[in-house]
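Allow me, if you will, to draw on your knowledge of protein folds for a short while. I have a record of one protein: its chain in single-letter code and its fold written as discrete structure tokens. Could you please explain, in whatever detail you think fit, how the structure tokens follow from the sequence? The record follows directly beneath this note:
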Amino acid sequence: MVASILELKNAVLNSNEYTVLDDISISIPEGKCTVLTGHSGCGKSTLLKVLAGIIIPDSGELFYEGKNLHMLPEKEILGFKKKSGFAFQNSALWSNKSIRENLSLPLRFHFPELSQKVVQEKVTSSLSFVNLLDSIDLRPAELSIGEQKLVSMMRALITEPAVIFMDDPTVSIDQEMRKKIISLIRDEKQKGRTILIVTHDTEIISKFCDWLVFLKSGKVITVGTLEEIKQNPSLEIRNILASVFESASSYDRDILYLLNP
């Protein structure tokens, strides 16, 4: 059995008398790709941020490598953040800073011992890898949405984190940018990183997903591999699967088989 690197126990989060996360307990396997999916508004992006320690739930516990993150001193919490990277759905780049500065920030914050030369080498190498070196001194607003997402992804990866969080990485981008992001996910998976992705993207799910988590109305309704979920006898779960993926423009063979055994 694969060891769990993250474990969330009995997480509850409310907002304006609305329950966003309803007593969620979930374990994230180390070195695997876990996908969180479900209808819009089901709580998957919020759950991702709770697992990343960005949002603290009203109740519940989050463990990283067996340690309760909510009870750790600030120094150890920073140690977890040093080992993790988060690519936001809306990119969340600093609008008043250049792309160079945006990518430099996590390196300077988590690795202050690095020289300016080494930081710049890492930044230029990252941007060269995704063919955005010419944009290094531009501001985020001067880039397309897809380019901003790509920069956000590279910022999340630049510290070579052990755990990578991605919130809808392929939404609202063109096909060229989508291919680049898919390629980045493939590379990180081959490196054995622990990856958590919020997505409806059938290509990501069929090619990279080791562990699929379905949410509905703030609850986890099923967890397992594609093969396990495919064999789930629940009509409700199969209907949710079908409705979640019905808007996809094309289905991979694995997804078609999942919905129509």
Summary: DSSP finds ten helices and ten strands in the chain. The CA atoms of residues 80 and 101 lie 23 Å apart. The first helix runs from residue 44 to 51.
